[in-house]
Amino acid sequence: MSRKTKRKHVFKEVLEDDMSLPADHQTIVRILSTKGNNLHEVLAPDQSTFLVSMPTKFRKNVWVKRGNYVLVEPIEEGDKVKAEIVRILTNEHIKYFKEDNVWPAEFDEKKKSCDGADDDLLVNTNRLHLIASSEESGSDSDESEDYSDDDVKK
Predict the structure, then answer these.
(1) How far is it, in rounded angstroms, from Cα 18 to Cα 88?
(2) Which pairing describes strands 81-88 and 69-74: parallel, antiparallel, or unpaired?
(3) Residues 6+ apart with CB under 8 A from 35
(4) From CA 113, how far away is CA 12, in angstroms rounded?
(5) CATH no. for residue 53?
(6) Are 68 and 88 in contact (CB under 8 A)?
């Protein structure tokens, strides 16, 4: 099977909304980070972290990133790798699982109110932030220098 044909079938399987509920042995987990070699560190609803593997049919065809939710099935072969990804969950899956009360309560995202939300904002470390007090802002006009056209050309 050519790479293009394989990718078409994988995308059809992933994007086709298979809205079946997870089986008893399957678990919904959140991706924490990628560890290389198609391994991902995940967070389970019981707050434990472990490694899961990406099956070969998804490799180089589907990507997951931090914060995505996946459905995993446990494997017995490895010591460090505890499960394998079965399905990558979309927003439609999440909505359907919440309606059927299958979604873990630990993964419910609480919306923050606007009151005091500025405290939770991340600081952009790529920008230099100067904090100036009201006393320093008055002295800015004294420190400014006038450049003549000759100085600019040099």
Answers:
(1) 11
(2) antiparallel
(3) 41, 51
(4) 39
(5) 2.40.50.140
(6) yes
